[in-house]
Amino acid sequence: MKSSPTIVERSPGQDQGQGQGQGQDQPGELPLRTLDRFREKLLQQQDLLERTMLTAVKEGRESSADDLQDAADHAVQSYQKELLFLQGTTGHLQLTQVRSALDRLEDGTFGECLQCGNRIREKRLEAVPWTPYCIACQEKIETGQIEGPVRAA
Ligand SMILES: [Zn+2]
To answer: What is d(CA 39, CA 108) in angstroms, rounded to the nearest whole number?
Structure first.
């Protein structure tokens, strides 16, 4: 602390003008257009996952019908089935996360960590918009320091 808190010389009016002009532009809140972008992403992801899972189920059924004739292909087929099953399982989990993220968008709690309540960094949300936790909590969950999925409601 070398200098007393003096007013910034350049343009003291600028800060006030910005702060008061737009009510939604408060620190701690994501701007509406950012939220819209995340919503868009989430909806796309939801759509993609739903289709992937439908395909996985469908192909799983089809291949089990086909491979009755060809024993040689059996190993490959079951390997593929397993892959499809995995896709379906992780897909389902992710779909759950995507849907609850969309719910939080509606609630206005989107971007808050379900565990500690802190804001999740925007960069993290860019990468994984459906994540319910901030990076710190995510790491704790992964290393078993805190309980996994918590029902917030
Ligand atoms: Zn957290």
So the answer is: 12
Residues with CB under 5 A from ligand 1 (ion): 113, 115-116, 134, 137
Which tokens go with 22? Answer: 């737009």
DSSP code at position 6? P
Q: Could you tell me the pTM of the whole model?
A: 0.63
Q: What residue spans define the domains of the chain? A: 31-110, 112-153
Local confidence pLDDT in tens for the 153 residues of the chain: 555 555 555 544 444 444 444 444 445 678 899 999 999 999 999 999 999 888 877 777 776 555 555 666 777 778 777 777 777 778 888 999 999 999 999 999 999 999 999 999 999 999 999 999 999 999 999 999 988 665 444
56 CA distance to ligand 1 middle (Å): 33
AA letter at 93: L
